[in-house]
Amino acid sequence: MSTGKKVAAWSAITILASSLFAGLSTVDTSTVSAATTKPVKITFWHAMAGPYKEALQKRIDAFNKSQKQYKVVATAQGDYTTLNQKIMAGAKSKTLPVMAQATYTQIPDYAKDGIVTSIQSQVTGKNGLSKKQLNNIYSGFLQQSKYKGEYYSTPFSASVREMFYNKTLLKKYNLSVPKTWDDIANMSEVLKKDGIATVGFDKSFDMEWDSMVRSAGESLVTSGGKVNVNSKKAVAAAKLITNMVSDGTAKTAGSDIYGTTNFVNGKTALTFSSSAGITATQAAAAKDFDWGTAPLPSYQGKSATVLAGNSLVVTATVSKKQQSGAWAFMKFLMSDKQTEKWAEATGYLPITKTATKSAAYKAYLDKNPLAKAASESLPGAFSDTAFLGYQDYRTNLATAVDAMLTKNTSASDALNTLADQTKKTLQENK
Hints:
alpha/beta, two-stranded antiparallel ribbon, 20 helices, disordered N terminus
């Protein structure tokens, strides 16, 4: 082979090799790039079901589409009790998600057990919330997010306790929507003649009782640790309820858990529910069922309703990237637009003042008058004191209510036992 031909051949080989290596280099770079841009997975456990689950997934989808850095993947874990059980089990087996729903009253115990972490640095940091943004969130909801002066959660599923009433029954008996517990007593005299219960409670009446005691000027457990669950005012409120159940003017839901079934079937003229229960009640009721909503009746001249719902927490074992992703999702959900959309879809309350006053939400209320009572209830809304051992207190409270309803235990005896148990709980968790 001549020298010229050898040079040409080597040049061809060199060009071919360069092309091959260039191709390999391109493939490798693409693979690395894809790996580095893969979104951080944010696992999320919640207790939403039915239409609430669907509404939550829409918010998640909107967040995932809004950015490429994180991907929230949600898993329903049953009801709130089951969710709590799974969180406790997940802590032991080290299988906790990145974030979860939790009631604000669970946070002290979760923090003590190392299950959740403070998000103070996220809230107040560079990518946190400004003073203007914090002031835009209703103080009652924001206060629930703090424990020992630091933020441990963000508000999300905000609701209040309110009253549902059967318009058809009230019209039939020429009755007005009750505004006080005295009004309810007067209604009962009319309705019981035909075997209709005036009031339908859930399986437990603890939230209505809690609201009545607060209306009477007392907290069941104060922030200073004083226990009032067996005070004269607390016992009197419990007796009012148990007497109604005993004489048939009130029903509890029993195994149905919620009073919705009795209410939509016309077995009770009134029922008490979370404002978020509107969606579930609409789904359970016949199309021609005519009903309305109103704030809880006042007691001893004052109105009060306990705030409920769930907050969002970040678990303590996550990486910094996962914590940043969880915070980005939390912040997204707290935006005026998203909290307003969530409220429209579920009956929960918007957590920001701007969202509540927005043209979109006002238009929603005009089209959905059932949702108005919740916002009307906010002036008298309150939160229970959260403390270490609160879950034990809740368990003991449920036992006390059950004893009054199913074992004929007097209100004073049941609540005296609850008081002793609560004092012991507080003492053990000092």
